[in-house]
């Protein structure tokens, strides 16, 4: 039995609230159970220096957690410098979202996706990627509406889900209670058409077999399909 009482292939409840902020070109709050993340997308008509005069656009991301997003207060990283974990997560978000973009069609501009964790209960990087895509979709829609982009640069959805081995069973969408005790923990980032972007799986308490990894992949495909359906319903 999972701590939440969910079936092994059951997701936490998913909701996506559009435009919670006034000024960002695209924004949403994604709620995956008790994990809540504010995602905003900002369009900049400039690109980083290494992209100048290439004709290509760029998508990047920043990630952070509010001090009381977790059980005990964390010190603000802006004051103390970003941790290695934070830097790794924001690089993951950026390269995941770029996999769903035609950078030629975007043109020489940058979109920055900020993901701020309001409340954490496991799977914050996965929620950030999934909600980040929604904010990105909204920002691109505004560019197209303004006539600044002629061809839709978004080529596919991008979503992410965690899977793991908890109490000897492969389970979908780990919450904190499961994540903290899982023998194996993995993050699966995929496109809406089912192609792989990045897979991260590690044995934290026990090794896992190829057959178990296949089971995790099956669960991940089911979870990503549900997340993509929620994304599309939100932006329809």
UniProtKB/TrEMBL annotation:
Family to which this protein belongs: Belongs to the RNase PH family.
GO terms for biological process, alphabetical: rRNA 3'-end processing; rRNA catabolic process; tRNA processing
EC class: transferase
Pfam families attached to this UniProt entry: RNase_PH, RNase_PH_C
Superkingdom per UniProt: Bacteria
Catalyzed reactions: tRNA(n+1) + phosphate = tRNA(n) + a ribonucleoside 5'-diphosphate
Keywords: Nucleotidyltransferase, RNA-binding, rRNA processing, Transferase, tRNA processing, tRNA-binding
Gene3D superfamilies, per the entry: GHMP Kinase, N-terminal domain
CDD domains found in the cross-reference section: RNase_PH_bact
Stated name of the protein: Ribonuclease PH
């Amino acid at each position: 039995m999972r701590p939440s009482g969910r079936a092994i292939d059951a997701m936490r409840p998913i909701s996506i609230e559009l435009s919670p902020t006034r000024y960002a070109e695209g924004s949403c709050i994604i709620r995956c159970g008790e994990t809540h993340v504010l995602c905003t997308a900002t369009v900049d008509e400039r690109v980083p220096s290494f992209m100048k005069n290439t004709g290509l656009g760029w998508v990047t991301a920043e990630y952070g957690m509010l001090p009381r997003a977790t059980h005990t207060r964390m010190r603000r990283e802006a004051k103390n410098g970003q941790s290695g974990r934070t830097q790794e997560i924001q690089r993951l978000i950026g390269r995941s979202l770029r996999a769903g973009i035609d950078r030629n069609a975007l043109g020489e501009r940058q979109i920055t996706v900020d993901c701020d964790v309001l409340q954490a209960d496991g799977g914050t990087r996965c929620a950030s990627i999934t909600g980040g895509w929604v904010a990105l979709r909204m920002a691109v829609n505004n560019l197209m509406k303004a006539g600044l982009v002629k061809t839709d640069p978004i080529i596919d959805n991008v979503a992410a889900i965690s899977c793991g081995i908890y109490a000897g069973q492969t389970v979908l969408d780990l919450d904190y209670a499961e994540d903290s005790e899982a023998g194996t923990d993995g993050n699966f980032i995929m496109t809406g058409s089912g192609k792989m972007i990045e897979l991260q799986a590690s044995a934290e308490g026990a090794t896992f077999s190829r057959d178990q990894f296949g089971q995790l992949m099956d669960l991940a495909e089911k979870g990503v399909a549900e997340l993509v359906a929620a994304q599309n319903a939100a932006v329809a």
